[in-house]
Design goal:
This protein is of the alpha/beta class. The protein folds into two domains: about 120 residues, NAD(P)-binding Rossmann-like Domain (Rossmann fold); about 90 residues, N-(1-d-carboxylethyl)-l-norvaline Dehydrogenase, domain 2 (Orthogonal Bundle). About 45% of the residues lie in helices and about 15% in strands. It has eight helices and seven strands; from the N terminus they run E-H-E-E-H-E-E-E-H-E-H-H-H-H-H. The strands form two sheets. The protein has a five-stranded parallel sheet with strand order 2-1-3-4-5, with no helix packed on it. It has a two-stranded parallel ribbon with strand order 6-7. The longest helix has 18 residues. It is globular, with a radius of gyration of 18 Å. It starts with a strand and ends in a 6-residue tail after the last helix. One of its GO terms (molecular function) is oxidoreductase activity, acting on the CH-OH group of donors, NAD or NADP as acceptor. This is 3-hydroxyacyl-CoA dehydrogenase C-terminal domain-containing protein. InterPro entries: 3HC_DH_C, 6-PGluconate_DH-like_C_sf, 6PGD_dom2. It holds the Pfam family 3HCDH.
Amino acid sequence: MRILITGETSRQEELRSSRDFGSHELIWSPGFVPGTELVIDLSLDEHPERLVLYAAQPDVPVLGCMVKNVYDQPGVYGCNWLPGFLGMPRLEVAATPSADLAKLDALMQQLGWLYETVAATPGLVTPRVVCMIINEAYFTAAEGTATRDDIDISMKLGTNYPAGPFEWSRKIGIRHVYEVLQAVHACTGNERYRACSMLQEEYTANKKSAELGTDPSY
């Protein structure tokens, strides 16, 4: 199978190093390539305009990052392709109303990947939970109850998590953490997902640095 992989360069590198594609042919390209049999779009959340291109190729399935938004388009399957999650043992896939789950299952078997279908809502499951934990850690740090390092250490020791909340935040990127929280809060109205002011300030500062060209990681 010819697989076109597009999106943020750092996520391409993470995907390359964390997932086994077997003997499938991989094409790393910013644009659509004729003969493509599957598209993996790691940055669909940030570039929803690509949906128009994918609609013009209805026979080519798309596994696109869809954590902050929900797009119900036939052949487009929303996945958790956020940084820090690309190598998870099971791929989270949103079950939108138009999703052909039989085709999805056949595709995953062809890839040899484990997957889990989840409700098609902003945040999916794992990103929503992890970002909420990160947000709570920011509230704790803002109160001065503990340092960031102490919070990371206590979480890893107390819960056996592989990373503390601030370590997770660095892996995912503050932009994605903040924007996932914003999306979930807008969808649910639950105050647990309202971003801590300290987190929002870091997001704003990073965004400004990116606009000035001093923070290319944003």
